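Problem 12. The chain below contains 97 residues. Write out its predicted structure in token notation.
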Amino acid sequence: MRPLSELHVSSQTTYVISTDMAVSSADFTAFFQDELWSGIRQLSTREQEIIILKDLENRSFQECAEILNMSVEAAKSLRFRAREKLTKILSIGGGNE
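Solution.
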């Protein structure tokens, strides 16, 4: 991270985190990717599988259900619960309640 006073105009987006610090879009993206994967690793194996299949690989619920050997409704329910849990993990900084 660079002090705000050292920012230069470029084609790369720069996010101001506070009045004295800034971070590039690449750093910003890398930080949130690390946070996301850290959160995903805290899910159960089954929850990780549905998040990866549906949200990261963009598979249909039908495909997810077939891969995970469950009904489409069960896959939808699992994804809903997994996303709720992941949201909670990410919003409280990885807290296992």
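Discussion. The first strand starts at residue 2 and ends at 3. Students who got a different answer should revisit the alignment rule from Section 12.3.
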